[in-house]
Amino acid sequence: MRFRLILRYHSMNVDSAIESFLLYIKTERRLSARTVRAYGDTLSAFAAFLDKTFGIADVGQLTHLEIREWQMQLADHGYSVNTLRTMLTTVRTFVKFCRRQEWIGTDIMAKVTTPRLPRRLPVFYTERETAALYSPETFGDDFEGHRDRLLLQLLYETGMRLSEVVGLKESSVDFYSNSVKVLGKRDKERIIPLENEILHNIKCYFSLKKENGFSSEVFFVRDDGTPLTRHDVSKIVKKYMGPVSQADRISPHVFRHTFATHLLNEGADINAIKELLGHSDLSATEVYTHVSRQHLKETYKHTHPRERKTEK
Q: Between the CA atoms of 101, 103, 106 and 112, what dihedral angle is there, to the nearest 10 degrees?
């Protein structure tokens, strides 16, 4: 049975409104007992703040100003951005419920800004670490060795997403135009150029597939001919990059960050990198400029003669 309030009021006590809301999310939305309890704890603290600070007992008296003040008080008490965002989401959901019940007349949350999470700089492998991908000693001389080398080189030299690599077909490669066609998010296609060495490695790998009797159109396969999975690719990346990299995280996606960062460090145009990565918005690509600037600062610090003198 759907939950409905039998009576509607233009005036409703804050505590009663909270009780009704908690009953709603428990019976109508069927949220877990733990979630309902968390919502209740946040709203109880919010109600106590409204009563103590502003003497507000009716939800109809609530405005964006009280919510902003509560938000600032929480920040002053040292609550993290993540916690603030969670608590504001709770209040936002509660206010939305109150508006549906006609206890609050206007969208007071429209003037309340949710704090943004600090943007983490992308993790990437250094050029010294990626050099291992081109060392003959790094990989075995069997089918798996050739496949793994090509896989890691493609990740590094194209910036493809994990899903895009797993979804590659043999027909994705165009040896005449020296490029690979990638099917990205929302089925958006893009063309990525390939340099001669990796094209040669692709031809050798295709020959090895045929020698082993693997007729699958899927580009990357296991040693039994079945398609390589996302989990397989992650394991391969950790196997080879784990021992040589000091990066905080070892994953296929770090190669995507590495691709963009290394191109920027070499002076590539950011709009060109945007197209190569398949980003729909330049802002998604611009995060790599911060990494590039940090790289320039570190290079200056460790190489400029005046900087080296001040370190001694």
A: -100
Of 149, 156, 124, residue with least CA distance to 246? 124
Does residue 279 carry a catalytic annotation?
yes
- pTM for the full predicted model: 0.62
Give the bridge partners for 189, in sequence order: 183
Radius of gyration of the chain (CA): 28
Q: List pLDDT tens digits, range 158-169.
A: 999 999 999 999
Read off the amino acid at residue 305: P
For residue 56, give the 3-state DSSP assignment.
Answer: coil
The per-residue pLDDT for range 237-258, each reduced to its tens digit, is 999 999 999 998 999 999 999 9
Structure tokens at 246: 């000091």
Q: What is the pLDDT of residues 75-88, one digit of tens each?
A: 999 998 889 999 99
| pLDDT above 90 coverage of the chain, percent | 70
Q: Which domains does the chain have, with CATH numbers?
A: 14-111 (1.10.150.130), 127-307 (1.10.443.10)
Name the active-site residue from 149, 256, 262, 274: 256
**Where would I find the H helices in the chain?**
14-27, 33-49, 64-76, 81-100, 127-130, 143-158, 162-166, 196-211, 230-241, 252-265, 270-277, 282-303, 305-311
Q: Does 288 qualify as catalytic in the annotation?
A: yes
* Residue 67 to residues 19, 22, 40, 114, Cα–Cα distance (Å): 19, 20, 17, 11
Instruction: Say if residue 220's pLDDT is above 60.
Output: yes
Are the C-beta atoms of residues 109 and 95 closer than 8 Å to each other? yes
290 given a catalytic annotation:
no
Residue 280 has pLDDT above 80, yes or no: yes
Q: What is the mean pLDDT of residues 162-185?
A: 95
Which residue among the candidates 10, 29, 169, 185 is catalytic per the annotation? 185
Is 257:123 a contact under the CB 8 Å cutoff?
yes
